[in-house]
Fold these 2 entries.
Entry 1:
Amino acid sequence: MTEAWIDAMQILASTLRLATPLIFCAMAGMFSERAGVVDIGLEGKLLMGAFAAAAVASLTGSPWAGLGAAIFASVALALVHGFACITHRGDHIVSGVAINILASGLTVVIGIALFTMGGQTPPLDRAERFRPITLPFADQVADIPVLGPLYAELLSGHNILVYAALAAVPLASIVLFATSFGLRLRAAGEAPEAVDSAGYSVTWLRYRAVIITGVLCGIAGAYLSTAHGGGFVREMSAGKGYIALAALIFGKWRPVPTLFACLLFGVLESSAARLSGVSLPVVGQIPIEVILIAPYVLTVILLAGFFGRAIPPRALGVPYVKER
Amino acid sequence: QDFKPAVVFDMGGKFDKSFNEGVWNGVKRFMDETGVEVMEFEVTNETQREQAITRMAQRGADLVLGVGFAQADAIDKVAQDYPDTKFAIIDVYWLDQPNLRQYRFEEHEGSYLAGVAAALASESGTVGFVGGMDVPLIRKFACGYVQGVMDTKADATVLQNMTGTTPSAWNDPTKGAELAQSQIDRGADVVYHAAGGTGLGVIRQVADSGKLAIGVDSDQESVAPGSVLTSMLKRVDNAAYDTMMDAMNGEFTPGIVSLGLEEDGVGIVENEANAELLTPEIREAVEAAKAKIISGEIEVHNYEDDQACPS
Amino acid sequence: MSGPLPRWADVLVIPLINVALAFLVAGGVVALIGENPLAALRVMIEGAFVYPGSLGYTLYYATNFVFTGLAVAVAFHARLFNIGGEGQAAIGGLGVMAVCLTLDPYLPGVLVIPLAILGAALFGGAWAFLPGFLQATRGSHVVITTIMFNFIAAGILVWLLTGPLIRPGQSTPQTRNIAPDATIPTVHEIARALGFEASSSPLNLSILLAAAAAFGVWVLIWRTPFGFRLRTLGESEPAARYAGVPVPSMVVATMVISGALAGLMATNAVLGAQEKLVNNFTAGFGFTGIAVALMGRAHPVGIVMASLLFGALYQGGTELSFAYSTLDRNMVLVLQGLIILFSGALAHMLDGPLSRLFAPRRRLPSTP
Amino acid sequence: MTEPSTAGAVHPDPAIELIGISKRFGQVQANDDVSLSVRAGAVHGIIGENGAGKSTLVSILSGHYQADSGTIRLFGEEVKLASSADAIRLGIGMVHQHFMLVPNFTVIENLMLMTAKAPFLTASRKEVLSRLAEIGEKYGLTVDPQRVVETLPVGLQQRVEIIKALLAGGRILILDEPTGVLTPDETDRLFESLAVLKARGVTILLITHKLREIMAVTDDVSVMRRGRMVAGRRTADTDRQELAELMVGRTVTMVTNETARPAGPPVLTASGLSLTDAAGVARLSDVSFTLHAGEIVGVAGVAGNGQSELLNILAGLDVPTAGQFTVAGRTVSAAAPADPRAMRRLGVAHVPEDRRREGLVLPFAMSENSVLGYLDEARGRRPWLLETRRMRARCQSLMDRFDVRPANPRLAASGFSGGNQQKLVIAREHGAGPAVLLVGQPTRGVDIGAIEFIHRELLALRDAGCAILLVSVELDEILALSDRVIGMNGGRIVGTLAAAEADRRRVGLLMAGIGGTAEIAAGAQELSA
Ligand SMILES: Nc1ncnc2c1ncn2[C@@H]1O[C@H](COP(=O)(O)OP(=O)(O)OP(=O)(O)O)[C@@H](O)[C@H]1O
Ligand SMILES: Nc1ncnc2c1ncn2[C@@H]1O[C@H](COP(=O)(O)OP(=O)(O)OP(=O)(O)O)[C@@H](O)[C@H]1O
Ligand SMILES: [Mg+2]
Ligand SMILES: [Mg+2]
């Protein structure tokens, strides 16, 4: 029993690690989409952030400098998206696709130019990474039944960005639902003309939203390459940005349900790691591909509205035009 | 200078600290010693291989070295198109072209030694193996490793995971780290990888958890100093170096070249750097096993012979 | 504010300026890296046209892009954004193999080839059916479902290529070769058979199919009642409903046609060039189709031109890797992203300034 | 924030002075050198035809748009209104023609959207609640702050808008066509509130199309036409006739349906048509009537009372949830639905209410628009291909016949003026030689010359034996053309009047939901009381 419990805690801990970039990205997307800007470019910003973090961490030796660079790079892409979608009323999806492709090209091109290692960064050593933090007394309490493993295995021993991701959820809730800024941001995604007539600039609100999106995606990227991973490899975002977007939709653009959606996708991934090659009772060995495509299949089923339909913000993807 | 050799690295990249990098080290040694320029290309996509190899031949390469079994088809085809160019490929033994040399390594033998070392270094009695792409070649590693462990410690447990089924499995360190962590969670305290770039994540995660890793292909001590018990060497550097030298000196021969323990084509790292981890007892046991394998007293099962692993 | 642009400016000048901007920014990146952008461009141009066989490669890539570009364009006209070209092409490849692996031992090539082409279109179309159907009936956004279907297609392909379809006794995820007589002949083979010198390239007769597809799409969109309805739907859904266009089935039909076109890419890549199904053979060409369609303004002629440009970029880009240690073909990806950005998302950035430039006399006297 | 001045203390300077305001949108000169002066504490009306520039003018005053040129003074001081924020700061509150509310926010969230200054909402919430109580006390305007706006009836939503405007400072309140969406009852309550506001010293600017309302509540009235301010009057010194003529710029002599005609055989019979929307709201309830050949039946009603739904069902765009209708021997119901193409084949043509969204594809050439819904007209020898030449020829003849200018089939529809766009739509439907013509708002946003032309064509079509169902919110249009008038309210038919008995008052009562002859008499007394 305790064995199984410890196992469960370990799987959940792995889930948490795998869900962290999803949580950051989904919260990022929430700000942008709640303000009316579709962000299919989460993937690109994530990748760019991952690259910038690893590159700068490797060059400076500091993961914090890497984190700063990731945020900077990701915000820069977010601003490009804003420039196209907010200022020039471009198609949000086209712009997002452009950013994803741009990021997957730029990371490799700059990577090769900087490190001539085929687009990867050098592996980061310990000092250049965010390291796991063992919470106080984790070792002491580990043997206490039930709660001990919960604390020692699940909660303790993650790097600071995992905790930051967990903090990002209530923080996003507060910003979106308990501040004037959040109120107006949400209104900009529902009825921008109402915000405008109330005397607030829709453009500036949306820009601030995409900047927040950039910041959060940057952190997610830094997590991928300097906390969870130990360096950048090409295409290391591997569709996580899209999955985060799916989680956002699945979570109906609300922080807590979105968190759970991210964790669900995280569980699928972590069990994929553990189930590979393992023969289960009854079903036998599950082909790894089945587990790997499960999140995508699940997303399609969710989108089809079989688990309740998600109603997006009304003005999502609609450029705000005052004068035709 | 007239001699123009070329090398086409595969997915994982020439700095994977592992397989491709091993080849690169051999190529570098060749360049340093002879001053000859070697053209190179890194494949990042399945569809590039044939074009890259063709392009090398087209650009007048005298020898094109392909790295890895994935290039087998492409090199087979181009070798026919360019009968005057010499070709070589590593980890392939099933082709038949008059201008092609193929290198085959007895990885199961080296892995057996890694298994012996792992079994002796493990305190928990559970050791792990993380493979890259799930292909017979990597099963061959796993199979030899398991045999080495079990022969040494009959009650040991060996945990095994493969990273994936496509070439991208060679280059997913984060996944490697998660797999290693899951093995550590299940009690493993020595983890051997045969996963190319993915293995970097394995070693890092193992080191972070204070356990021991066994590297592969090249000496991977430098990835996590103090945490790498040893590395299973696969002297692809020698293969690369020899091919180029032979081709330059007009001694190129087609056919299959097999490299095992006896030829020093495989082995494990025993040097100053891992003196503390790889204790004299372990070294002794490893040496003994090596002698027995060479003498034929121990027969290490080769997965590729029957696509099966007796367990 | 000013009036609309003259048509020729809209069709010709704006796309050219947008592409020029993309090249400019990409050149900036090259310069930043410390290489001479003009020299790099020269390497690419030589790599695309000058070396033996390079033109063949250029046209081979262009053929792929015509199919995926047309796929995106057809959907565009109905205001559907099919990002699933990648997955549809992959499944199209499966369609080719489904026919070839089962029939090529029994039937002569001349019969297998048309069936395989049909298989590519059918499978590709079928793969787009569900996203279209979900969009039409459940309102699931086709953009996200097609992205998901790309991942699912990749997963299925990997599973099949590492399992049931893998060539026996092999490690590489790929099928056995198609019987030689059941593949689409390459151009160099034909040329050599006719006694000409020709360096080998994957260029094959699928290029004719691509040309036919481009013409067919033009007829379909602008000359048939179906195309009229499709365009009506794209411009205004209320007007389409008013005119009696059955909107849901139109959405599904459009997606299926779009998917079939993307699937046809497999005839070029699988049936023509590789002669077997290789994992990941789509290599991002489905996404390139987006850039091609945007740059070609969703018109077949524009798409053919844009495909040639991208074909040259892809072929020339590979040469970058040979010529430089600091640059490689991913530069083309950067360029592709920039082209989508400038000719898609920022398409109207220049409308204002340009229309002022073009129509100074048409400006009405404005109140002071 | 400025408190509204107390009752009686009227400011000496005009509350609002607009001098030489001009505003252009692309090709449209929406405001052309407009000047306007509004007395402090007065209710000032602005009238004008559709597109005259009224909304544009007040949007400039509320900072929503910026004028290209001109000066604005408030209470004697020149001000710059660079954004809505400036106007709000200066105490100008605006109730827009289209509500500026976030539908799925609560009332209080909508109010905080404008007022919240502190970073966190808790503080603002308290403040808004107390201000809300204050407004309730002072002006009698109350609303449940926790309700989600979209669940409120339109009248209450409008009240939220007014409260929002008052929260802004409440010195000046602008209402842009506030009654267009209201029931007569709600309208009355609105005007009561306005009276209270006026008594409290708020200056009110009211835009409306309804001359009755102008006469009832304003002190002064200004008239706009084609972007210009053409007249200003004390309400007491003018009458409806004069205002109407000022509005359209000449004496109104519209074609009217003089010749009473014997009704032909029935061609369309509807019985018990009902429509319930996805949210479960009944949009149309138990509508039954018969349409005869050679008659025009006018459907009168305030917008949103089921007329659009009725048109859509008859045109095959919507499927009735209950009931059925029969035309040309075919019965259409939920069990046997028909699509628009099927309806056209049965001889039912349809001029949709919204020509820009439905009736036309604006980027398409006129020739393509001329076959929208009638693709058979464009097919040549090979029926799977469209023949461009045929299409153009057909369009050309329609254009000539209906005097569409410029008569060039190759031009995109977007380049034509509203009137000409509408003429093409009517020409197209007319050209199909229909047995039944469904017409929605045929002259909305169309100028008077085109109105005359369109009316004449409709009457001619009727004389040729076509049955016409005419839906219009313009009472005058209904009265001028109809052989019979159906009054609709809340999705039901309230009553039917023959041409002879239909007059403004009676039809107005029907629209207000008061049907039946006896009821009408009673209602009339009630209203005049
Ligand atoms: N945002 C805009 N962009 C372009 N043109 C506009 C815009 N708003 C209004 N117009 C045009 O300006 C003119 C005046 O419009 P406005 O809305 O002021 O008229 P209105 O008098 O309020 O009409 P209505 O009675 O129909 O509300 C019209 O021709 C209209 O089409
Ligand atoms: N809301 C609008 N947005 C953009 N353009 C408009 C708008 N309303 C009108 N236009 C354009 O402005 C031009 C003049 O339109 P307007 O309706 O004022 O013409 P008009 O003289 O009233 O003609 P008509 O008598 O036929 O209505 C036309 O080209 C029309 O397309
Ligand atoms: Mg108006
Ligand atoms: Mg007009």
Note: The radius of gyration of chain C is 22 Å.
Entry 2:
Amino acid sequence: MDDIEAKVLSNDQIAPGYFLLKAKLPKPMDPATPGQFVMVKVSDSEVFLRRPFSIYDYNRGILSVMYKVVGKGTASMSTTRKGSTVSVLCPLGQGFTIQDREAYVVVAGGIGIAGVHALAKRLGRKTSLFFGCTGKTELPLIGDLTPFDPHVATLDGSAGFRGNVVQLLSKHLETLKEKDFEVFACGPENMLRSLKKLLEKQRVPCQASFEERMACGLGLCFGCVKKTVDEEDPYKRVCKEGPVFDLWQVCL
Amino acid sequence: MDDIEAKVLSNDQIAPGYFLLKAKLPKPMDPATPGQFVMVKVSDSEVFLRRPFSIYDYNRGILSVMYKVVGKGTASMSTTRKGSTVSVLCPLGQGFTIQDREAYVVVAGGIGIAGVHALAKRLGRKTSLFFGCTGKTELPLIGDLTPFDPHVATLDGSAGFRGNVVQLLSKHLETLKEKDFEVFACGPENMLRSLKKLLEKQRVPCQASFEERMACGLGLCFGCVKKTVDEEDPYKRVCKEGPVFDLWQVCL
Amino acid sequence: MASLSVKLFGRTLRNPVMNASGTLGYGEEIEPLWGVETLGAYVTKGLSLKPHHGNPVPRVWEERRGLINSIGLQNIGVDRFFNEHFAFFKEKKTPIIVNFFGFTEDEYVACAERIKPDKLIVALEMNLSCPNVKRGGISFGKDPDMVHQIVKLVKAVTPIPLIAKLTPEVKNIREIAQAAFEAGVDGFTLLNTIPSMVVDVEKRSIPIRGGLSGPALRPVALKAVYEISSSLPLPVLGAGGIMNSNDALSFIMAGACAVQVGTATFIDPYTIPKIIKGLGEYLERCRCPRITGIVGAVHG
Amino acid sequence: MASLSVKLFGRTLRNPVMNASGTLGYGEEIEPLWGVETLGAYVTKGLSLKPHHGNPVPRVWEERRGLINSIGLQNIGVDRFFNEHFAFFKEKKTPIIVNFFGFTEDEYVACAERIKPDKLIVALEMNLSCPNVKRGGISFGKDPDMVHQIVKLVKAVTPIPLIAKLTPEVKNIREIAQAAFEAGVDGFTLLNTIPSMVVDVEKRSIPIRGGLSGPALRPVALKAVYEISSSLPLPVLGAGGIMNSNDALSFIMAGACAVQVGTATFIDPYTIPKIIKGLGEYLERCRCPRITGIVGAVHG
Ligand SMILES: Cc1cc2nc3c(=O)[nH]c(=O)nc-3n(C[C@H](O)[C@H](O)[C@H](O)COP(=O)(O)OP(=O)(O)OC[C@H]3O[C@@H](n4cnc5c(N)ncnc54)[C@H](O)[C@@H]3O)c2cc1C
Ligand SMILES: Cc1cc2nc3c(=O)[nH]c(=O)nc-3n(C[C@H](O)[C@H](O)[C@H](O)COP(=O)(O)OP(=O)(O)OC[C@H]3O[C@@H](n4cnc5c(N)ncnc54)[C@H](O)[C@@H]3O)c2cc1C
Ligand SMILES: Cc1cc2nc3c(=O)[nH]c(=O)nc-3n(C[C@H](O)[C@H](O)[C@H](O)COP(=O)(O)O)c2cc1C
Ligand SMILES: Cc1cc2nc3c(=O)[nH]c(=O)nc-3n(C[C@H](O)[C@H](O)[C@H](O)COP(=O)(O)O)c2cc1C
Ligand code: FES
Ligand code: FES
């Protein structure tokens, strides 16, 4: 783990309101597992705290972060120019743990795709990818995951299945029933909630990546907790024990 | 008076630690008299308040400010790039009032030259200019006033008279004695103090430009006062009733 | 076009935005940029029975995102204000709130007595941050009993609505407000500056001790506005680090029926007109017919 | 090489820089970046007799140049801290200051009793910002009598030096400190966060109520440090918006024998090592042999 001054190689809008930032790290980042994240220092006088972003991709010293503009931090990030520097604290948190299974199911909602991108690539074949978004303008978020030919759901029905990604997944669960498989998910909390409902009966093994407002990203402040079933310490830190949790451990 | 977004044409170091900033105003500034000043908004998250600077020169829509780097505001101003914009609130305060006299004497100490530059040009012939500084590295501050062939004093004696500018002036007062003349001064407070002593006997008419820390520059906060001999309202606002005061009115 | 007008003590103000006392001079100073008639009401510089010369310099100091001032309440005195400046507001038909102070109870009372009711005078705003010289210099505003006493005394001598302007340096601002309420005060202005100081590390000196204003004060003032406006049936004017219309809206939704802008004017002298414009745009955007509709919007 | 070491309650600390309680987890969390042995002393997260789960989210919110938190004192309890974490500091030979709290006098006392003297334990730091549930929830730290009482009770059960950590939300911090002093307290930490809140203008809601920390607090904390250190013969630890070595120096010159850094660590996790380095460089620059030489440098 380290705080690294990275040089911005590109920061392109990949879909309306979504950006992909690529930065060159002067020194290699410590080994990272899919699902880990970074804290980015936004150079803007009005932005005080760092902002957390999943490691979308990291290789040969180049870190990629895919982000959605939702507020002042991401808005000012979107204006970052090629050649400028950003400091990134990385890699942070606990990523996904990968066991050998007959099949893997990766479920992503909207920008949640950024949290499972590196994972999907790691899992490779044996993986079926489900991606849900509001409409077809967000399809570019799939980026280089098209080879997985993902099952797509759009809320407005402008592409693929009309509805949310969990409804779409439910139709395919049948085909997987027999297999020993595991689900990996990242997306808005309500998506994870309905996913939990869907998987409840068979209690399919499932790891999910969660979000929470953060101050430090290092486990120092206890500001970013999620409630779990653990009686003794119900509140776990998303930045330290997470962001990836066993779905069955989290209270949703 | 107005708050104007000006475009920086140049911002060059003219002597070690001294800069001349030239900016193009999109619309003409209201008529300004020599000795008036502007409030510059420094675009730096650590700098909260605007900073006051004399109008070094203004013509054909181009405003010039000569400044010395003394702290974080001027330090960050010195990094302002050509092409960037600065907002300047201008013109502010009361400048010098010019009456017809047989002779004029302009006295400037260090960066104080910035406060009398426009004045000297206005007074033209009949003016003798006295400039004091620490050493010859600061002579470039005289800039385009060399035609006045100024009497120069340096504290280290590296150029002209060795000593301070008031000592130098005292040697020349003789020659002026007979005449009806007026002194105009701008410089550090201790220079103005000794100037006052020097002129006390004959109580030569003298206008001097003063400095004080400012918040608003508009007369709103009463933060920038100088003590005067006025019994009823001793504290006058440098930004509103000043920066130019009748030397004999000010308590030094 | 949505309406920004608000009622305060039976008077209608064209909008809920005022300057904070002591941050817009005597009113004329801002004329070259915009007119005081732009304001919902002009709040006077702090006035006292006798003129005050104020403190020596430095009187202002920059803090990261804040300002520390020790003006020392320089003012020309209540009589000269009305002789020399009141006509200006009459002519501009701009309602005013008269901020005043004293260092003894008698001074407060005598000063309030001099101010004759006028249809342009919306209220008197008493600055309770002043030291009570007869009580070892502790601010009137820190002690519930002193607050109760001074409010009672002043109410007894003036028919003009009385606003108590409170200091943040208190144990429990609710208790202070309660004391003023029971003594018959008509409203509150929250907050005044927070006592603070600066150390110059190079010179190893204390260049200034004074009141901190600006953004640093905002979340504290916001909480005070919320607590008082949700617990007492009196109008509250919000002040403290309001820099833009979003900040103004947060104070209004927290329960302020009007806001006062101080330090922000020093950074951008057009802040007040911009805020007024911004409030109008917000109402349009969320199809809200009038600003009064969102006062206290966050109250449970 | 100038000396940064300071003496506190007879113990020698390698430097005067500590983390502020609750801003460096349980200590191990920072290991990947730098070791706790870098610190003059490690200040524990606030500990209580029984574990506390803390508040629901959001627990942190960004303010312009400040942070508002409502962690709710989540902690594993004093016993588990000593069973599970103390060994780590033993092994690293890092002195610690044990921050603790309670919601009743009994909880404070019982918690303090559990902490056995140890050569690594420099002091207990009692967080007086907690609500006294038996007194309508007013913070212990706001009332001189409550402060006197609780300090007396705790001193009676522990031989370990006791530091009172005060809240800024008081009428007169000198009066509070005096009460603690008379009850036998051994030192002070100034300040804790300022109660504040946020309004979300779009959602028209109050996303968080909590304590404001960071630069906004600095000039207020600095004044408190100056006032207390210049009026009472006890060591003062300064905390509040210290972001760099210049800020640290201003607290030290104002009279703090050590400083605590909190929020700044969240923005730059290397702030503490950088400050330690900066203090050393300052001493070299002005040829000052030891940091203790400039403690209280601005005192008249
Ligand atoms: C572990 C982790 C990984 C993340 N990965 C990504 C990613 O790869 N791409 C991406 O676009 N976003 C990601 N996020 C969310 C991202 O951090 C927030 O969108 C961002 O911090 C918002 O900052 P802002 O200043 O633009 O918004 P703010 O102005 O701070 O707030 C605007 C909105 O964003 C929400 N928000 C603020 N902070 C967070 C947060 N930490 N988590 C969730 N919502 C927040 C607020 O609730 C508010 O509605 C991740 C969050 C976490 C915790
Ligand atoms: C009417 C007026 C006209 C001026 N004209 C010029 C000019 O033409 N060229 C020029 O270089 N400077 C001029 N000054 C001084 C200039 O405003 C200050 O040097 C500047 O504000 C310092 O800002 P800073 O952030 O760099 O310094 P800070 O970090 O704010 O302070 C560093 C040092 O500068 C001093 N200082 C800060 N503010 C002022 C101030 N307002 N007046 C005097 N000293 C101050 C402080 O005492 C301190 O010692 C003028 C000042 C006034 C009041
Ligand atoms: C320069 C200055 C002068 C002030 N003078 C007064 C005053 O005379 N009376 C008063 O009640 N408050 C006075 N205040 C406090 C302001 O009215 C206001 O309450 C405070 O500054 C918080 O608002 P702000 O953060 O918008 O500045 C003054 C503040 C400043 C900065
Ligand atoms: C996230 C967070 C948690 C805190 N927890 C505690 C605590 O448990 N006990 C305590 O006495 N102070 C606590 N504080 C207050 C800090 O110790 C410190 O007094 C305050 O934050 C001011 O310092 P700073 O501005 O450097 O952060 C906490 C502050 C923050 C930001
Ligand atoms: S953000 Fe500080 S503990 Fe997670
Ligand atoms: S700077 Fe505000 S009155 Fe002069």
Note: The longest strand of chain C covers residues 205-213.
